[in-house]
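User: Last request for today: this protein with pyridoxal-5'-phosphate, please.
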Amino acid sequence: MQFSSTKNPNKRVSLSRAVLSGLAEDGGLYMPRRIPEADQTFLKSLEGKSIDEIGYRVLYPYLEADLCPEEIRAIVKGAFNFDTPLKKINQNRYTLETFHGPTLAFKDVGARFMARLMSKLIEGDDRGLNILVATSGDTGSAVANGFYDVPGIRVFVFYPANKISTIQEKQIATLAKNIFPVELDGTFDDCQRIVKRALNDSELTAGRRYTTANSINIARLLPQMVYYFRALAQLDNLPGRDIVVSVPSGNFGNLTAGLMAKRMGLAVKQFVAATNVNDVVPRYLQSGVYTPKPSKETLSNAMDVGDPSNFERILALYDNDSKQISNDIQGYSFTDDDTLKAIKTVYERTGYCMDPHGAVGQLGLEKAITNTEKTGIFLETAHPVKFQSSLNQLDIKVPVPERLKSYLKREKKSYPMSNLYQEVVQFLKAHSLD
Ligand SMILES: *Cc1c(COP(=O)(O)O)cnc(C)c1O
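Assistant: Here's the final one, the structure of the complex with pyridoxal-5'-phosphate:
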């Protein structure tokens, strides 16, 4: 498979180029040149198939030009070392739990896959790969864990001191080996500014290789198609069902992956773009006009995005046909009050505890389908325990999983630094791989 920029479909690059450079030279985002249809035998025999079996079948056409079958199998197996269980909530209503990776959010899927893929793509190359990532919390923990101990790669995670949660900091700053946590005396914006400046600093990057692991990388999207197929594999009586899937969305990577899966043949009739009050996409779906806005803070803070970067991928996938886009996606937005009420109601009625992001997905699903003849699935994107303060407000207690407890016991080892570029660049020069 070749990949092309959303800004210029005619210029094509290899998988390796698309993944190792992240952003296209023209500033566009990479997309597969075409979306291949999955074969009918595979689609008809989904039931009961495991996540790595599905992963191999779904991802093969995107990777086979650069990797051999054994390599693809090994990357998929390593990335999906946890399942995405489908749980029944109510009559014909399900949640797909995508958060069973090491940092308890779905971002583990993309980060683990990207780490293994990058490591394979640079194998045999005598230069190392340095990855710079700025984080306000979740992305940094997934990336640090995904790349931990991966040969040939060193990761510098920049996070603002005292501005991320204890759980997040422990997941970033207790790993060591090839993970270098930079605790910056500044804000998230300072972290982002410094990372951008470093990536464009020709004195720093001369003779060394640097890239970033943020969500614009196509390697994070591709594996997210897999769990949509895995969701359907867990339903009985699949052929008779009319399925709607609701995706709590911020930067819209997750929904884009779902739409790509649909194009491959996934039997989902419609998707729901569920957002908090950062509602530029639901508005677009109603009016056909896209108007980015500054983001507003909400309880579902990983979705506080005012100008979602993957929206241009959705436009590219549909050739800018807004009518077709509105046929396949319904969009709804919800307030923090709606979100807390939904968590409480579902908990009281069913005993299932949603996190604020999943709750927005559940609300979107209920708005999109009112009868129980259709099958509804919403994605749960994080473990509720990561959002303890919302649960405290509602007097709901969930046990802390062992995996998190073990992180909390570990000792933090970070590199504290001022927000002065010169100080950071000296540090990078001293510790980067050649
Ligand atoms: C990042 C994130 C989202 C938003 O996903 P997008 O792909 O950016 O739309 C939703 N929920 C959680 C918990 C996240 O971390």
